[in-house]
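A brief tutorial aside. Many learners find it easier to grasp structure tokens once they have seen a single protein encoded end to end. The record that follows does exactly this for Purine-cytosine permease. Read the sequence first, then the structure, and try to relate runs of similar tokens to stretches of the chain.
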Amino acid sequence: MSQFNIEEEIEDIAGGEFERVPVPTSKLKSWKSFLGMYAGEHAAGTEFVIGPLFLTTGVSAFDLIIGLLLGNLLAVLSWRFLTAEIAVKYRLTLYYQLEKICGKNLVTGYNLANGVLFCFLAGSMITVSATAVGIPFNMEMPKLTDTMPNGMTWVIIVLVLGAVISLVASKGYETVSKAANWMSPVIVLAFLACGIVALNQLGVGSLSEFWNIWGEGSEPFPGQIKYTFWHVVIWSWFANAAMHVGMSDLSVFRFAKKASSGWTTAAGMYVGHYMAWIAAALLYAVYLKSPEAQGLLANGEAPTVAPGPLAYNAIGIFGIIAVVLAGWTTANPTIYRAGLAFQAIVPKLSTFWVTIIAGTLATIAGLFPAFAMKLLGFVALYGFILAPFGAVIVFEHFFHKQAGIVKNYAEVANLKFNRAVFFAWAISFGLFYFISIQYDVFLSFVTLPAWLLCGVLFLVFSKWIQKS
């Protein structure tokens, strides 16, 4: 789910010179470039966790397999008809586009939220890699319900991994990115191999036997909620909400020759968010049949979701390597991007030091398994917080004439803080987060209503503020 493969190639082309100007025609890229980028970058460390977590929710075969087909299609349509459409119209980064509408001070707040959430995501990927590194040390793996570190071995491995990842992110981003482009096919191959081996271990010889792995579903594991068809559809649609309806990938598709390049995101969705998720779920299905897992379930405990042992059980040492690489290639660029978000807030600090700060926060987060074990909930929260800012861009682009408002009002009026944006986001976020908590509504279910309300309120408040 990380964006680094795309951003690395774009940064290599742009050299940072198009941060505040439209991308020139001479630098535009064909759809083939985006196809390879998206196919590789969505089969990453997060997939090793998300696949098994679907099984812990007691999802049925139909709900998972068909639900993912539809949810990922909706994500592709969002990229194609919203993100790519707007990106090729203006060819600006998300941050500069937001600054024109929101004002510099408000964008600073966005950057802070973005950076902190990136750190938490990177921390969960350090956790993923640690589950593989810990195998030779016979380390006790974190349980699904664990929130705190479970021993000194865990703490030491996470601290060492975090330090190495942070240092590489702060000094060797170009080298890491190039290496990651080579690693991506290896990781995709590992997912495919894991899925095939797991099917063999489960004794699956037909489509009906494959379907019966999930069957009609079951009760969720302790601490998990029951997923239905619509849980799967809406969650998979908004797993990357910050990137498509949240407009983060404006920075990516501003280099596309045509908006039709947005269709290439299907490669990422159906290689990573379909094949890889199902393959990882199959690994967990094998583990659930083991005496250890059956014993835990009999005692009313949730079996561990540790990607390292699951992959090792399927494909041996190659599995350990794949999990370490998948977690590392996700955490490293995520820390780098978090550092850039922080640097926008404190520009006097060097890239090295802001990246080290981001890496430190990510490492601290990685010590707590809850970020990885609750990844379904965290990803939903991540999209819910950031996506409404994208609604501001979308609604201004499509409806500014009908609403009778001035585009890029912060730039035109020389505002540093556009109240229309802030109040639209605060009301939509506050209202629907309250509904989610108070009435126990699945957070992804209220992401779209919050996004729509934020866009509408932005138009209403803009009309009122601009008139006054």
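Self-check: Residues 1-17 have pLDDT under 50 and may be disordered. If you spotted this yourself, you are ready for the next section.
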